[in-house]
Amino acid sequence: MAKSHTQMLNVVAMILLAVLTAGFISLGNWQLSRADERRVIAEAIERGRSREAVNLDATTDDKDLLPWRPAKAEGIWLNKYSLLLDNRNLEGKPGLWLATPLKLEDGRALLVLRGWLARPLSTLPGNMQTPMKNFQAPPGMQKVSGEISLRVPRLYELWSPIARPEKGLPDNWPIGGEEKSPATTETLLRVQNLDVNELSHRTGLRFLPVVLMQLDEVDDGLTRVWPGPSVDSDKNIGYAIQWFGFAAIAGLVLLGLIYKTLRKLKTAK
So where does this one cross the membrane (predicted)? Predict the structure, then answer.
């Protein structure tokens, strides 16, 4: 009876070790695939940034709209459609991104992420709120340069009490009327994420299928440091080596247990 119980425990242990070995190998392979993905992203960034700056106008071909490629545009700022993207931290500081459409000469629009600003303390009195008048884009034809992004970088939420958090635009936006002056961080609409297609539907503007992350130096109080994807593939390779090491340990223990069990069975005969 005791021998049968011991054999059963050995079988359970071998099954568990086999599952662990397979699981560790799978995790190691997953880390290697993540490393490959990051290398591909790093190559795409290098390709984009090594290209000559493209002019975003009526002559621009869609095939030239590569992510991370330098780009230039000229148009009129549409301040009344400015938005704030919430929960965009910079170096650990809570803040917001300011986004404003730029109307191009051909009538289309380009969504420009103009920069980062620190989130004001909500406990401050109303007259001490951070004024946005310094961030109001100047009137008339303006030139802007930066880097192309295929979309507004998303803020992924685990949950949200707001309906349709992936869009973020309330049903009553935009509100008609003239632009409010001066605008403040409390009066501009804040959203978690922004979809250019919905923005086009709401405003009636025909947007280019890309976003421009502004990089040129403008004395408007905004910080222009944009987050990029992680391209540290070496970290993933290090994790893969760890998982393969765990797999080797579990596999060796499994082989040792199989050898020990078979030897006992042979001796018993």
Answer: 239-259
